[in-house]
Automatic annotation (TrEMBL):
Organism expressing this protein natively: Ziziphus jujuba
The keyword Zinc is assigned to this record: no
Keyword Repressor: no
Biochemical pathway: Glycan metabolism; pectin degradation; 2-dehydro-3-deoxy-D-gluconate from pectin: step 1/5
Descriptive protein name: Pectinesterase
Compartment(s) where it occurs, according to its Swiss-Prot or TrEMBL record: Secreted, Cell wall
Record's catalysed reaction(s): [(1->4)-alpha-D-galacturonosyl methyl ester](n) + n H2O = [(1->4)-alpha-D-galacturonosyl](n) + n methanol + n H(+)
Catalytic-site annotation from UniProt: D297
PANTHER family hit by this protein: ACYL-COA THIOESTER HYDROLASE YBHC-RELATED, PECTINESTERASE 8-RELATED
One Gene Ontology term of the molecular function aspect: pectinesterase activity
One GO BP annotation of this record: pectin catabolic process
InterPro entries, alphabetized: Pectin_lyas_fold, Pectin_lyase_fold/virulence, Pectinesterase_Asp_AS, Pectinesterase_cat
Sequence similarity: Belongs to the pectinesterase family.
UniProt-listed Enzyme Commission number(s): 3.1.1.11
Length: 445
């Protein structure tokens, strides 16, 4: 994706941490280009600053007021109720407050043994782990367990992925316990039928911080990269916490997840980043009740995907009253030919957050995106869309809206190439048939 073309405020997190200190913190995180020795040194630094690191993420978002969203009730964060209430009052993005609470909790559980309150003998923190878990394999399913405290088979997600047999026809469920997993994860094409099963998108996250610069290209910057078919993710978040790019900064694109396999499904997942958060690269994909956050082109690629009941949240910089400047875009679809059956469709979603943004811009000449029965806040620019400043694309792009509501859904000033779809025109986009879901999509169990 292109570098950041939008203007930016210069006052991010000035009340908490300077950019110099933030970049120091982020530089302590390992990168894929590091030598083995450097990675080891960075990881040691990471352990000592992990709490401060999370606070720095919070600081980055000080001037960002996301669309209100209440996190799932989680008994593990009640002991930090005051802190979480403060966080939720200031920042309505639920992942940040929950991850901070998890970091506090993990500090209490850092060692594998602890004293009983009555002064009794040491007991393992794993004593509370479900007995006889994971269960034995069946003819159709295998379960691999990941817990960063060492309470089951694997302590990293990548190790569990590596343990899955190549070309396995079983459904391989990688059950990932509550926690923040600082690692870059790749699911290769030879490992289909894998499920990532988290414990809630506000309590389980895979986090990394590569950028286009550090990984030799935007396409390789994803914290998680999925190349295999039939991938499923449930109740887990994918985050890229690279520093938010300034205006005109080159090579700062930072992908949270890249999905390049066919027939992938995401249920109740979170996607967190800034520029190019969700690389919906290629294949047929389904997103249900997901939370997607970013600023510039934060859902991009050339997949054929259906997003249902999702929260789409811009964290672009707020704009001054009366300003007509644009500082973000939700989608950037990459269809290159009219013969490609690809596109992004959003049904029964909400679009909100901060900034003034387009619903999409035409990354490629035949870009195709539809919003249907979606509620849009006033962050949407009146023109709604952008042809990538290339009027020759106006005849080939397909941008449609159908039965949308909210102040951002007013189509009276939309760009002339935007289509107000009628019932007949909208019908092919409104259900699972758009992605051939009846042929492959499994019900949520």
């Amino acid at each position: 994706m292109p570098s950041n073309p939008f203007p930016s405020s210069a006052c991010l997190c000035s009340h908490f941490l300077s950019f110099k200190y933030l970049f120091f913190l982020f530089s302590s995180l390992p990168r894929s280009s590091d030598t083995a020795k450097t990675k080891k040194e960075r990881k040691m630094n990471l352990k000592s600053i992990s709490l401060t690191f999370l606070v720095s993420i919070l600081a980055i978002l000080v001037s960002k007021h996301f669309m209100s969203s209440t996190p799932n009730n989680n008994p593990q964060i009640i002991s930090l109720k005051y802190l979480i209430d403060v966080c939720l009052t200031t920042f309505s993005s639920p992942i940040i407050s929950s991850l901070i609470s998890l970091k506090f909790i993990s500090r209490h559980h850092h060692h594998h043994h602890k004293k009983k309150p009555d002064g009794g003998k040491n007991v393992s923190i794993c004593d509370d782990f479900p007995p006889n878990f994971p269960p034995p394999d069946t003819d159709t399913t295998s379960i691999l367990c990941v817990d960063r405290n060492g309470c089951c088979n694997f302590t990293t997600v990548q190790a569990a992925v590596d343990a899955v047999s190549n070309s396995s026809q079983k459904r391989n469920i990688i059950w990932i316990n509550v926690g923040i997993y600082y690692e870059k994860v790749i699911v290769p094409i030879i490992k289909p039928n894998i499920t990532f099963q988290g414990q809630g998108f506000t309590s389980t996250a895979i986090v990394w911080n590569d950028t286009a610069n550090s990984s030799h290209g935007t396409f390789y910057s994803g914290s998680v990269q999925v190349f295999s078919d039939n991938f499923i993710a449930k109740n887990i978040s994918f985050m890229n916490v690279a520093p938010i790019p300034g205006p005109g900064y080159m090579g700062a694109q930072a992908v949270a997840i890249r999905i390049a396999g066919d027939q992938a499904a995401f249920w109740g997942c979170g996607f967190f980043g800034a520029q190019d958060t969700l690389h919906d690269d290629k294949g047929r994909h389904y997103f249900k009740q997901c939370y997607i956050q970013g600023s510039i082109d934060f859902i991009f690629g050339n997949a054929r995907s259906l997003y249902e009941d999702c929260q789409v949240v811009s964290m672009a910089n707020p704009v001054a009253a009366g300003s007509k400047s644009i500082d973000g875009s939700v989608t950037a679809h990459g269809r290159t030919s009219k013969d490609e059956n690809t596109g992004f469709v959003f049904v029964n979603c909400t679009v909100g957050g901060t900034g003034r943004v387009w619903l999409g811009r035409a990354w490629r000449p035949f870009s195709r995106v539809v919003f249907a029965s979606t509620t849009m806040s006033d962050i949407i620019a009146p023109e709604g869309w952008n042809d990538f400043n290339d009027p020759t694309r106006d005849q080939s792009i397909f941008y449609g809206e159908y039965n949308c509501t909210g102040p951002g859904a007013n189509m009276s000033k939309r760009a002339p190439y935007v289509q107000r779809l009628n019932d007949t025109q909208a019908a092919p986009f409104l259900n699972l048939s758009f992605i051939d879901g009846d042929q492959w999509l499994q019900p949520f169990l």
